[in-house]
Amino acid sequence: MKFFIDTANLAHIREAHDLGILDGVTTNPSLMAKEGIKGEQATLDHYKAICEIVDGDISAEVLSTDFDSMVAEGKILAALHPNIVVKVPMIKDGLKAIKYFTDNGIKTNCTLIFSAGQAILAAKAGATYVSPFLGRVDDIGWDGVELIAQIANIFAIQGYDTQILAASIRSSMHIVKCAEAGAHVCTCPLEPILGLLNHPLTASGLAKFVADAEKMKEIMQEQA
Ligand SMILES: O=P(O)(O)OC[C@H]1O[C@](O)(CO)[C@@H](O)[C@@H]1O
Q1: Which of 5, 41, 219, 223 has its CA 20 to 30 A from that of 64?
Q2: Maximum Cα–Cα distance for the chain, whole Å?
Q3: Residue nearest to ligand 1 atom 2, measured at CA
Q4: DSSP sequence for 132-145
């Protein structure tokens, strides 16, 4: 499973990149706004800055919701860098835009996926990625991981090339569950990724190793 970071924060992107486990980045208008990015040129410049840090797929979302405007916006985004993936919402015009981009060699990420039916439509239109929103499905009392597993099963049976990008991930355990359920990619903020590092037995085991190493150093100094 690939790891994408879900943020527009350049420091967090650098930190995840420096861990050596980062395969790409996803952003959305809310995440861009959180970083204070306003206006078209500032937005395009920010995407370019992200592309300079990470050599992997970078999702950049269109803001409009009609076919012609989405195509126009997507072309501008895709022209920024070969790694840009145009993120398009799961609506009727979005589906048509995905087909258009696919036919013109532009990668897409179909966002706002909440059902297997929506994932099938996006795959049929040729989306590079579908983004089921696992956390938001959990929020309404349904099972987000089960949705990922259902889509993974359907895509395997049908032989779809579209990759499942598990989104709206809220915890380290969500990441592990997505890997088990067959997601090709998970995208989440830095914290759940860093959370995977932690285990109390690792912490107590390391404390003992460090203490014993100190004792060994003291003995070696005494003997020197
Ligand atoms: O429910 P949340 O935490 O706002 O997450 C929404 C998700 O939507 C996305 O836009 C999908 O890629 C991600 O940026 C994010 O994972």
Answers
A1: 5
A2: 79
A3: 168
A4: EBHHHHHHTTS-HH
CA of 133 to the centre of ligand 1 (A): 7
**Phi and psi, residue 82, nearest 5°:** -60, -20
| pTM attached to this predicted model | 0.94
Residues with CB under 6 A from ligand 1: 6, 26, 28, 111, 131, 133, 135-136, 167-168, 187
Q: In the annotation, is 87 catalytic? A: yes
Q: State the CATH class of domain 2-223.
A: alpha beta
- Could you tell me the residue ranges of all domains in the chain? 2-223
Q: Where are the beta strands (DSSP E) in the chain?
A: 2-6, 24-26, 57-61, 84-89, 108-113, 129-132, 163-166, 185-188
